[in-house]
Model the fold of this input.
Amino acid sequence: MKNIKYFFKTYYLTMIVAIIILLLSVLRFDKVSEKISFEWADKVVHFIMYFCLCTVLLLNGSRYHKKQLSILYLIWSGIIVILYGVLMEFLQQFISYRGASLYDMLANSFGVIFAIICFIFVSTLIFNGKRK
Done:
């Protein structure tokens, strides 16, 4: 019970962002997509969503541990968020007005990778270049 309480206390913001992404992945947004008309707009949205999810996950972990996160933690966080993106694409196959896309998965993954690179850069500045 203590572990579950710890998990929700530490990662509640990550779970909120993940739920928002789930809702955005399964709900219909025809009117919104008509207004965003530049090429690859949906890929930019995917990139931003998964950049935000990974950043919030890393910030939650950093806040809990109160120190710089290890490379292993960063790698596992990235893998978890990328797998979440793959799961969302898989689920979209079963929704009549949605569809899975390899390009969406790539945009999700690039958002995660960019979030980790930004996090490493900023945390290296904060912790004076020391990395575990």
